[in-house]
UniProtKB/TrEMBL annotation:
The lineage of its organism: Eukaryota, Metazoa, Chordata, Craniata, Vertebrata. It comes from Atrichornis clamosus. Residues 390-420 are annotated as: Disordered. This is Phosphodiesterase. Belongs to the cyclic nucleotide phosphodiesterase family. PDE7 subfamily. Its cofactor is a divalent metal cation. The gene is Pde7b. Keywords: cAMP, Hydrolase, Metal-binding. Coiled coil: none annotated. Zn(2+) 2 binds at residue 187. Its EC number is 3.1.4.-.
Length: 420
């Protein structure tokens, strides 16, 4: 596959690659590159027009002539939703519809303004918006899960966490900007397949990053490429921009699920020893890493209707990978076999081994705030619902057996589902 250098030499923004024997279009469903470029330019223009129209309304300025790109009622509802952006029941799917698929850009513009970052860092609004559009467009909308709506959801969660008193009392404008940027860009240009898939298909990204945090490194480097290309921070001292780039990398790399135990053990040690000093930049950065990790996997802690949608989306993405692996006679990855790995069993395992341990520690850090308690309550209720659905699946499977008994192969499958 090809690679492009954005901005300064040495930072590669890796573009869509190709597997040795797999046509990457199977993942992207894209057409000719020239046509894509034209479409992107049109999309970028329309996105800016939509934002310009919406931003005037958000400031209370009624335009002389409407662009008619968004219905006034939709804009009003989107504006109302933004006034409640710190609420945990914020419906990102609805917000994405109300903003005509521009949830990430609209949310980021609002949050950068709310947190005073535009004024503090003297950011140019047009340049800032252009950068946000670049980030949003670098997500693959055809991915069921790893798309710009997921990025917007993580960013909204991060905003909620940054407001937790235990953290908020110590955060600097740099901390807040890093937290929001990392949340927004943490999965940028995600191909819709996981790291083991890239390694076993000998994808150029796996070679580039020597099979270590392949996707996370790519998300980080792509983000730095766009930051430099946009020149958003070009007016800041070079030392500061270099520090921002490195800290962005440290935050995004923390989302690698393979490093989960490493962060949990460290967090447990800090909490048990009560030695977190949030006055120190190093400890604040560590808690920003933890906050981003929580935001990235907070779906099971949302209200059931939202949580269920995310669960179905992530499993659909897993199953698509499994179908690709089957098509090319590769071993099907764990959780990617639709015949064996059911949504309830995947979710119960994910909640039990990944989500619960992290969020229980987060609640301990925050001091069991209303938000932390709310998240844990949702998590427990959602897990109970998935267990109920799993039980119904098992009952249905048994009743469908012609002999009235569970066959040996069925029993084996059920046992595997119960121990994901």
């Amino acid at each position: 596959g090809d690679a492009r250098v954005r901005g300064q030499t040495g930072v590669v923004s890796e573009r869509r690659g190709s597997y040795p024997f797999i046509d990457f279009r199977l993942l992207n469903n894209t057409t000719l590159s020239g046509e894509i470029g034209t479409k992107k330019k049109v999309k970028r223009l329309l996105s800016f027009q939509r934002y310009f129209h919406a931003s005037r309304l958000l400031r209370g300025i009624v335009p002389q002539s409407s662009l008619y790109l968004l219905d006034e009622d939709y804009l009003g509802q989107a504006r109302h939703m933004l006034s409640k952006v710190g609420m945990w029941d914020f419906d990102i799917f609805l917000f994405d519809r109300l903003t005509n698929g521009n949830s990430l850009v609209t949310l980021l513009c609002h949050l950068f303004n709310v947190h005073g970052l535009i004024h503090h860092f003297q950011l140019d609004m047009v340049t800032l918006h252009r950068f946000f559009v670049m980030v949003q467009e670098d997500y693959h909308s055809q991915n069921p899960y790893h798309n710009a709506v997921h990025a917007a959801d993580v960013t909204q969660a991060m905003h909620c966490y940054l407001r937790e008193p235990k953290l908020a009392n110590f955060l600097t404008p740099s901390d807040i900007m890093l937290g929001l940027l990392a949340a927004a860009a943490h999965d940028v240009d995600h191909p819709g397949v996981n790291q083991p898939f890239l390694i076993k298909t000998k994808h150029h990204l796996a070679s580039l990053y020597q099979n270590v945090s392949v996707l996370e490194n790519h998300h980080w480097r792509s983000t730095i490429g766009m930051l430099r290309e946009s020149r958003l921070l070009a007016h800041l001292p070079k030392e500061l921009t270099q520090d921002i780039e490195q800290q962005l990398g440290s935050l995004i790399l923390a989302t690698d699920i393979n490093r989960q135990n490493e962060f949990l053990i460290r967090l447990k040690s800090h909490l048990d020893n009560q030695d977190l000093r949030l006055e120190d930049a190093q400890d604040r950065h560590f808690m920003l890493q933890i906050a981003l990790k929580c935001a990235d996997i907070c779906n099971p802690c949302r209200v059931w209707d939202l949580s269920k949608q995310w669960s179905e989306r992530v499993c659909e993405e897993f199953y698509r990978q499994g179908d690709l692996e089957q098509k090319f006679e590769l071993e099907i990855s764990p959780l990617c076999n639709q015949q064996k790995d059911t949504i309830p069993s995947i979710q119960i395992g994910f909640m039990t081994y990944i989500v619960e341990p992290l969020f229980e520690r987060w609640a301990q850090f925050t001091g069991n705030t209303p938000l932390s308690e709310n998240m844990l309550n949702h998590l427990r209720r959602n897990k109970a619902k998935w267990r109920s659905l799993l039980h119904k699946q098992h009952s249905s499977s048994r009743s469908n057996d012609h002999s009235g008994q569970v066959t040996g192969s069925q029993e084996q499958t059920l046992n595997e589902e119960e121990t994901p």
